[in-house]
Design brief:
Glucose Oxidase, domain 1; 221 residues; elongated; 8-stranded mixed beta sheet; alpha/beta
Length: 221
């Protein structure tokens, strides 16, 4: 991860996907990855630049399925577009082990994974459409690396900022990362103040009115 990547990732420290999602809504930016769920109820939040991979149905003879991982930098999030396919996997235990050894932050797949016991045991973060045991070998192959992909209807470009946790996955366009992070922190600060007010005995309605809760996520004009 280069210096700029590290600076952008640091902007999202202390945030989670609900806060970032609210900021995206307020700014009118699509980025929520519909249907992509965490493999486990992760306590932390994964944040990293996207390393994108696109799979397609394989040719004859079939091409490779996982060699791209040698080019992924530590701290990156592997983002795989397998067209939402759930009939064959594009990630298994060997990929999990190697990614963990290389310090890769996590993997997001518009498709399925397998060998989940390894990922769960290692605590390696995976976000997918589910799990299925059938191999992708001789069924799919890598068509492109670090080009634009679609994950759960969200467009992802290489080096966009991926934020993922137990709630799901959101993608922040790299060019708007600072704006999104600032907005998310402002929303979280307001919500924190609301929680503080209700802890003192104020009614929820009063606390929300005082802090403008109902406009926090409203899109800016």
């Amino acid at each position: 991860m280069n210096t700029t990547d590290a600076e952008l990732v640091a902007l999202f420290q202390g945030l989670d996907t609900p806060g970032v999602s609210d900021a995206l809504d307020k700014l009118g930016i699509p980025g929520q990855c519909l249907g992509i769920a965490p493999l486990d109820n992760y306590r932390g939040t994964v944040v990293g630049p996207a390393f994108t991979v696109q799979y397609v149905s394989c040719a004859q003879p079939a091409g490779t399925v996982g060699d791209f991982i040698d080019d992924v930098a530590p701290g990156d999030v592997v983002v795989i577009d397998n067209g939402g396919r759930t009939d064959c996997t594009v990630w298994g235990d060997i990929m999990t082990q190697y990614a963990g050894q290389r310090g890769i932050a996590g993997t997001v797949i518009d498709g399925v994974c397998r060998d989940v016991a390894k990922a769960l045991g290692d605590g390696y973060p995976l976000f997918t459409r589910g799990r299925f045991m059938r191999t992708g070998k001789d069924r799919v192959e890598v068509a492109a690396v670090n080009g634009p992909v679609a994950i759960g209807r969200a467009r992802v470009v290489a080096r966009d900022i991926v934020v993922a946790d137990a709630n799901g996955v959101v993608v922040v366009p790299r060019g708007r990362a600072r704006e999104v992070a600032e907005t998310a922190h402002a929303i979280e600060a307001a919500e924190s103040r609301i929680r503080g007010l209700i802890a003192t005995g104020m009614s929820l309605g009063e606390a929300r009115a005082q802090l403008g809760y109902h406009q926090l996520q409203t899109r800016r004009a």
